[in-house]
Amino acid sequence: MANRRRPDPLGDAVRRFVLGRSHRAEPRPHADSDIATRLAALEREVSEVRTRVNALFFTVIAAALGDLLARTVLA
């Protein structure tokens, strides 16, 4: 059985940003709105990353509180 990689949307979004590519093929607007379009795309990607980081943070906090509670009750 081949070891298949699971899709990693966050990693893909970061790679696309670093390489300057978008995951959607968007028509190239004229130069004045190009900066605004790229800024809007960047804000959407940053928002996605922020959401994922917050979820990870709250998951770690919940796990730590659960561990602390378990140690307190079982001690």
Attribute tags:
mainly alpha, single chain, 73% helix
Molecular structure report:
- The chain has 75 residues and is mostly helical.
- The chain has 2 helices and no strands.
- Helix 1 packs antiparallel against helix 2.
- The longest helix has 44 residues.
- It starts with 8 loop residues before the first helix and ends with a helix.
- Average per-residue pLDDT, rounded, comes to 80
Structural class: mainly alpha
Report the strand count: 0
Number of helices: 2
Strand content: under 5%
Largest beta-sheet characterization: none
Secondary-structure element order, N to C: HH
- Rg, rounded, reads 20 Å
So what's the overall shape?
elongated
Q: Mind sketching the topology for me?
A:
Elements: H1 9-19, H2 31-74
